[in-house]
Amino acid sequence: MAYAFQTRIELECADGFYPRSDLSTYQSDDFELRLGDLHYRDVREYAVGRNTSAGWQERRDATNDPLPVTRVWTDFLPQQEVERVVPARSASSSAWRLSLGLPFPEPKRSVQPWIHCLNFTPSGGGVRKE
After folding, report:
1. For residues 104-123, average pLDDT
2. Cα 80 to the chain's mean position, in Å?
3. Is residue 55 predicted with pLDDT exceeding 80?
4. Which residue, 9, 8, 7, 16, is CA-closest to 57?
5. At residue 53, what are phi and psi to the nearest 5 degrees?
6. Which residues contact residue 128 at a Cβ distance below 8 angstroms, ignoring those fewer than 6 apart?
7. 10 Å Cβ neighbour count for 47?
8. What sign results for the dihedral spanned by CA atoms 93, 95, 100, 102?
9. Average pLDDT rounded to a whole number, residues 22-45
10. Which of 104, 127, 103 is nearest to 117 (CA)?
């Protein structure tokens, strides 16, 4: 009996692999799922791992057009660099105010209809009871 532990499987195809589309939420009534589909509409997926990660190498030509992905692999210990994010001034100011228990400033008129739809009172009262 033989076992393979933490192996890497690699496939190459000179013609390239076709990207896979996740259509599971295509006709969903859930706003969050459809918003996610909109945000990630240009993300391509060429491989999926089962109990492992999958990777591929995307290349571009001289005019920055995508070339076919010709190599995919499994990766049992994936790595990803996370770029540094600097919070916006208003977001850090809001978090600071909340951490000190200071009252939150009144929302601008442009977001008041949304706050009403969320059934939330901006003056610190929390969820509105009706």
Report:
1. 57
2. 14
3. yes
4. 16
5. -100, 165
6. 119, 120, 121
7. 19
8. positive
9. 83
10. 127
* Mean of pLDDT values over 69-84: 87
pLDDT interval class at 28 (50, 70, 90): confident
For residue 65, is pLDDT > 80?
Answer: yes
Rounded to whole angstroms, how far apart are CA atoms 67 and 80?
A: 22
Residue in 17, 26, 27 with CA at minimum distance from that of residue 48 = 17
- Residue listed under structure tokens 């990766």: 75
Least Cα distance to 48 among 21, 87, 12, 23 occurs for 21
Residue tagged 């076709």 (tokens): 18
Single-letter amino acid, residue 27: Q
* Residue 74 CB neighbour total at 10 angstroms: 20
Distance CA 112, CA 106 (A): 9
